[in-house]
Amino acid sequence: MTDKAGLRRELRARRRAFAATRPSLPAPSRLLIEALCPGGIVASYVPVGGEADPALFDAAVVAAGGVLAWPVVIDRESPITFHLGSTDTMADGPYGLRQPQATGDGVVPDIVLTPLVGFDSRCNRLGQGAGHYDRAFALWPDALRIGIAWSVQQVDALPRDPWDVPLHMIITETDVFLPGVPK
Ligand SMILES: Nc1nc2c(c(=O)[nH]1)N(C=O)[C@@H](CNc1ccc(C(=O)N[C@@H](CCC(=O)O)C(=O)O)cc1)CN2
Ligand SMILES: Nc1ncnc2c1ncn2[C@@H]1O[C@H](COP(=O)(O)OP(=O)(O)OP(=O)(O)O)[C@@H](O)[C@H]1O
């Protein structure tokens, strides 16, 4: 199956089923976080639909002196913006998301911890289908794009459209993928 809509259906179901077994990501090493994030702005996300929970990364970022930001959806067609904030003060947003009550233009992230529906070993990413992250990556091409996922979300090769921006790294509960080192 190579069409994106069909893959999304299958991979969302796989993600939910795997998440129900209560897997967890390993805590990232202090050295990795300190190397990647010397006091920068790291965009994270609040997981939905069985997405891998980046909470241990969030904690490591803060411990390393970084600042967390969160995506805010305006509508399906607009780029997401990233806003500083804490999970305690978020409000309900579209698609069942929790998001900061945003004011202003938001911040420019140094690192984007990126949720995904599917990925391949070359760090291509399939998202929710609204182009929200691809638009953000086009706006902030200098940000380091790190995908966070469960291993069951891997497929052999994703179909690619011209606007798809690959990730620099994908971390799962069992592996780290780098685009130059296919597994
Ligand atoms: N946790 C999280 N936050 C995120 C995203 C994400 O993928 N995960 N986004 C990524 O772009 C943006 C929100 N964009 C979205 C665009 C479409 C749908 C969507 O169509 N959801 C389906 C249900 C999906 C499911 O069953 O798991 C729907 O509402 O029908 C969701 C989010 C920003 N915040
Ligand atoms: N940089 C961009 N500028 C304008 N539109 C874009 C851009 N990137 C993607 N899109 C639009 O977003 C829509 C969805 O793209 P796609 O199916 O690749 O979603 P996706 O890979 O699930 O993306 P995401 O996770 O970023 O939501 C497409 O109609 C595409 O035209």
Automatic annotation (TrEMBL):
Cofactor or coenzyme needed: Mg(2+)
UniProt cross-references to InterPro entries, sorted A to Z: FTHF_cligase (IPR002698), FTHF_cligase-like_sf (IPR024185), NagB/RpiA_transferase-like (IPR037171)
Keywords, in A-Z order: ATP-binding, Magnesium, Metal-binding, Nucleotide-binding
EC supergroup of this enzyme: ligase
Transmembrane segments: none
Enzyme Commission code(s) on record: 6.3.3.2
Catalytic reactions on record: (6S)-5-formyl-5,6,7,8-tetrahydrofolate + ATP = (6R)-5,10-methenyltetrahydrofolate + ADP + phosphate
Stored NCBIfam families: MTHFS_bact
Family membership: Belongs to the 5-formyltetrahydrofolate cyclo-ligase family.
Protein name, UniProt field: 5-formyltetrahydrofolate cyclo-ligase
The organism of origin for this protein: Sphingomonas hankookensis
